[in-house]
Write a structure and sequence with these properties.
Length: about 220
Amino acid sequence: KAMAEAGAGHIGKYSACSFRTPGIGSFRPEDGSQPFIGSVGVLEEVEEYRLETVVEQSGLNRVLKAMHSAHPYEEVAYDVYRLANGGRIYSMGRRGRLAQPCSLESLAGKVKTVFGCQGVRVVGNYRQMVQRVAMISGSGGSLLARINPEAADVVITGDVKYHEAQEARLKGMNVIDAGHQELEKHMIALVSALLEDECRHQKLSPEILKLKESPCFRLL
């Protein structure tokens, strides 16, 4: 239970997944030990269960800490195996669909308003109707070459260089460059919340410093 509450055992849409195998464990407590079961110098055999579960690498230390805290044994016997399973796939961006299609020019205006941009740069046909949107916050210009033009009607990102824009246009891609900081600043609250949650699991008391950063560039 402690390991599951710490994040172990997630497979798809299921949580607290595990598998138990009964067996006989043997051990002899040596001098200086404080055995939970048995006596120093006496070989013990105990009916036990081998418990198997899965955990993402990012949460491994938290799960191991929970295991050690909950287990009554002085020395916990455990193994960590790296799996070759595909597992969860993370990407650098997200894809979605607008409730209603709109022109590229109209979407660029909405992006400018929503993200508080001083201005946006647009590559593509302003009048083309778009609905499938891909987004890479921060600096995603270097990733445009890896995007399948058929996967989205428009890509919203930042830091698009001249030649990257040229290549995107030749591939028939629509791109809205809303700026690095303008797209990334909205992640600060989310990342801060994730860090605070992780620190609580680690029983740490983080201090979050909130600074109001002015734009690096100004349009004249």
